[in-house]
Structure formats: C-alpha cells, structure tokens
What we know:
By secondary structure, the chain is mainly α. Helices cover about 45% and strands about 5% of the residues. Heme C binds near residues 85, 87, 102 and 133.
Amino acid sequence: MKNVLLLGMLLLFSGCLKNQWEERLENGDVDFDSQTETTPTNTSGSPVSKSTYTPAVVDGKTIDGKALFKVNCTSCHSASTKRTTGPGLQGVLSRIPGGDWKYNWVRNSTKLIESGDAYANKIFNDYNKSIMTPFPALSNAEIDEILRYADGGQ
Ligand code: HEC
C-alpha cells in the first residue's frame, strides 16, 4: 500500500516536471533557433548580444548590467521582445525618450508619470496601469549598463 502511494506521488511529480517543460516550450522560453538569429544592435549601432556583452568598468568599478538585470528586472521584463508583466526590453533604447528619461523612469516611474510626461503616461496606460517597482538606489551607470545589456537582447 505504502509503495503504491509512493509510486503515485512519483508519477505526479514527473507529470509536473513535464508540464513545466511543455509550458516553457509553448511560451517560447526555450529558443532552439537562437543561433540563426541576426545579431541585434544597440542605438549606437554596435552589436550587443548574449555572447558579446561584457560588463563595463566605470571609475575602476565593474558594473555588470546582465547580473543587475537578472536580480532586479527579470521578474517583470525579458531581455527579448517578449512581453511579460512589462515590455520586453530588447531594442528599448530606440523607443524611449533620450536624456535623463531612463534614469528618472527606473528610479521612480510614478513620479515621472505624475509629472505629465507623455511617453511615461502612454506606456503606463498600455500596461493597464501596472506600477513598476522604483529603484532609487541604482546609479546612472548601473541603469546605463542594465539597459545596454537588455537592449541588445539575448
Ligand atoms: C514589478 C514589475 C517590474 C519590475 C520589477 C521592473 N519593471 Fe520596468 N516596467 C514594468 C511595467 C509594468 C512597465 C510598463 C509601464 C508601466 O505600466 O508602468 C515597465 C516599463 C519599463 C521601461 C519602459 C519600456 C518601454 O518599452 O518603453 C523600462 C526602460 C523599464 N521598465 C526598465 C526596468 C528596469 C531597468 C528594471 C530593473 C532595474 C525594471 N524595469 C523592473 C514593470 C516592472
């Protein structure tokens, strides 16, 4: 009896594993074609991809945009064009306003929206008024690197 129960649990467990895998396949999280994709370029036209992204060294300090992106942003953003909670961030640098916009947005998007900024209000409405977590502690250089990494896609 005990063995039957154990076997049942094992089967259930392996069933779950299979479903997760299938889900990932359906969601396109597993990309078998990545090697044939064209290399994305950033706004300055230089190619940045998974294999070529190297962390920047600013004032002797290494800033790893990929690692920072993984820790802070992947819960809501992909570094591809795939929409999750928020927009996929591949190519993001060519659609957002220039100047300090990216720093103001990432540090406190609500403040930027409330200031009446047109693009901030547009994306806020496009994403059903989901509120992005503010990241007041990220420096300009860190935000630059996170977006340089994500913009290049992976
Ligand atoms: C809790 C979810 C969440 C997290 C975490 C998050 N974001 Fe967002 N982000 C959003 C949503 C949702 C939007 C779309 C606009 C809105 O609803 O405010 C957005 C929009 C953006 C945009 C504008 C994208 C475009 O297409 O114009 C940028 C840039 C951005 N986020 C960067 C980041 C970065 C960098 C991080 C990590 C440091 C991050 N986000 C973490 C939810 C999140």
